[in-house]
Amino acid sequence: MDVPRTQPAGRNRRRVIIITTLAILAVVAVVALAQLRPAGAPVDRASVMTDTVKRATLVRNIRGSGTLVPENLRWVAAATAGQIERVVVQPGTRVTAGTVIIELSDPQQLQAAADAEWQLRGAEADLESLKASLELERLGQQAAHAQLRAELESARLRAESDAQMAKQGIVADLSRKMSATNLEQLQRRVALDDQRLALTTSSLQSRLAAQRAAVEMRRALYSLRKSEVDALHVRAGIDGVLQQVSVTAGQRVAAGTPLARVAQPEQLKAEIQIAEAQAKDVYVGAPAVIDTHNGVVAGVVSRIDPAARQGSVTLDIRITAPLPKGARPDLSVEATIELGRVADALQVARPVGAQEQASGTVYKLVDGGRAAERVQVAFGASSSDSIQITQGLKTGDEIVVSDTSNWDKFARIEFK
Questions:
Q1: What is the pTM assigned to this prediction?
Q2: What is the CATH number of domain 43-69+267-415?
Q3: Which of 87, 312, 370, 383 has the largest count of CB atoms under 10 Å?
Q4: What are the residues whose beta carbons fall under 8 Å from the beta carbon of 68, sequence distance 6 or more?
């Protein structure tokens, strides 16, 4: 019969030890692999900018650039058509309101003014002639009226005399009646002549008023023609500095053509351009600071352009402090406009691409600053150079604020 063979005890023990050792090594390898971090992108530490999260008052502001422009600016336009004869004053010259800066010429305007003057003189002569004629007519009628009244008075005396004499029987009663009748007739004639004289006087005044109106019409026309001739001498209109002359001698211009620009350089304002996306928070009266590159002055927003042009909105900032020396029209300036403040805000320097009231990712420094890992954060209010952190970071955290778009596919970067 067959007898089974048994394994040696030492051989079984070695097998168990080997299996156990392999199992322990496998577990250790799995744990080690689980603790390994993915390889980070190598980045030169000197090529990135970082900032530390802190808690302080966040001043919300925006920045823009523009130029200084005069608050009181006047474009001088041609009031009448003409040809440029001479540019009397050159740009840069200080002028007064009555300074002639350009001389025009137009023979037609001169002829029209001369014709209007002669027409006015003719109308005035006609008025004087009419006055004399009407005065003679009035005097003649008054003389006739006076004669009629004298006749009335004589008839009244005759009637009274005949009446007394008739009572005494000296004259016949027929003579008394005839005297009384004559008196009544003269009284009616005088009453009618009074009415005729009043109507005649009113008629004379009307004819005189019509001629005076004709004279005034001629005078107004002459005044218009004279003003057109005077407008050939183009004046500055305001006290200031002649900044620009946009025409040359010999040029023909139409009425309304801009000829020159005069400004008052002592009163300047800043005309600033800001991005249209930032204009929604700006308000009239917002405080501002203007940097003229030769000094900083305070100002306040005085006007906001209602329309956007080429992605920007224009603001006018009224300057509330004396300007530094060297400030002049068309000088390039930069402005910082304050929109409000957020007290006790967790904030950091604004990372490239960070948007207000939005979420995003930043690289937070770890391992003592030797590396950085990407973390999710939520942003709040912002200014031109800072932004509020509402979630994802705490005071003392240090993050990368420079452009990290080249490492977007890496969750970790290693500094070298």
A1: 0.57
A2: 2.40.30.170
A3: 383
A4: 268, 269, 270, 271, 292, 323, 327, 328, 329, 330, 331, 333
